[in-house]
Design brief:
2 copies of one chain form a homodimer. Chain A has 7 helices and 7 strands, in the order E-H-H-H-E-H-H-E-H-E-H-E-E-E. Chain A is α+β, with helices and mostly antiparallel strands and about 190 residues long.
């Protein structure tokens, strides 16, 4: 699939979205509790199917040594190497069933993603960055933190104040391969 | 689970996130192509596992009568009733495998949710609102729009300029039931 490294350069996205990115190095300071609360209230304000709000988050702050080390231990080595600088680590989970009737909710993980994405953008407003990770041992996360079977493990994440500059370009698929109109694979008129 | 209707009122979220909501009535005007392009570039700028960008979107604009009617037809009756006022309808899909090696990507639907959430927030910056829907016939969507088997159908959505005022309160689970620290179910210090 052809990619465009400058699509976001041609279009002026809102700065909160344009400045969202995933650093691999963080400053050695922990966000204040009020800041963390706002960050997760942002996530918690996200949209969800039937307003189920299926997302949950398990976090560990560096100031809580053992808990943070335990969280670091769920990451694959490649991620743990850089995430070691992050003052807050954690992972998300999505409830597999609707609370009001117990029926299967196929949007549990989808909506946990919605919430994490909202958190990433609220983070920018707070001067923070959130780096999401797929590379971690979800089974280990479930065991160590006693995640109930009714929840699917989502993504891991690192939270902190970036110690890096944002790279100038974002590598993205060209929009004509992403947005279709009329039929699958037919680029939307506005995406060409 | 206890809920808090005023949590977002006590905390001051960024206005783009605070003003994201899901209207059921839209003005009778179609967003310009440049606006739709920016909206979907916003979605396309989202984070994803291994930067796979597994999201795709199929849309229909009201000005394209038959296509839009076909899209309206995938919605459950309750949603179709109000979504009839929306100038743009569509649904998302998430790729089930990584393009670089063909391995299963368990974040396909999760990351399609990430992109939709980013789009919802970019929409607010553009004066638009995006209302996501789980209530639609995903099998029918796949058949009518020829979605390949390697993609999981995500959420449907309506896009437009809201014809309603935002409700004053957002019903949300209390953060102490959403963010845990140390162990599942133990409220994070900053969430109490």
């Amino acid at each position: 699939m052809s990619t465009s490294t400058s699509a976001a350069g041609k279009i002026r996205l809102h700065h909160l979205i344009d400045e969202r990115w995933s650093p691999r190095s963080f400053e050695d300071r922990e966000p204040a509790e009020s800041v963390l609360r706002e960050l997760f209230e942002g996530a918690n304000s996200s949209a969800s199917c039937f307003n189920e709000q299926p997302w949950r988050f398990v976090v560990a702050r560096k100031s809580m040594d053992a808990e943070w080390e335990r969280m670091l231990g769920i990451l694959v080595e490649k991620n743990a190497a850089w995430a070691r600088s992050a003052p807050v680590l954690g992972f998300s989970a999505g409830k597999k069933t609707f609370t009001h009737n117990g029926a299967a909710n196929r949007f549990g993980l989808h909506d946990a993603g919605m919430a994490l994405s909202t958190m990433m953008i609220e983070a920018v407003a707070l001067g923070l960055r959130v780096h999401g990770m797929g590379g971690f041992d979800a089974r280990k996360a479930r065991e160590l933190f006693h995640v109930p079977e009714d929840f699917e493990i989502g993504a891991a994440f690192a939270i902190g104040y970036s110690a890096e500059e944002q790279p100038p370009q974002r590598k993205r698929n060209a929009l004509e391969h992403v947005v279709f109109e009329g039929d699958w694979g037919r680029p939307a008129g506005f995406a060409r």
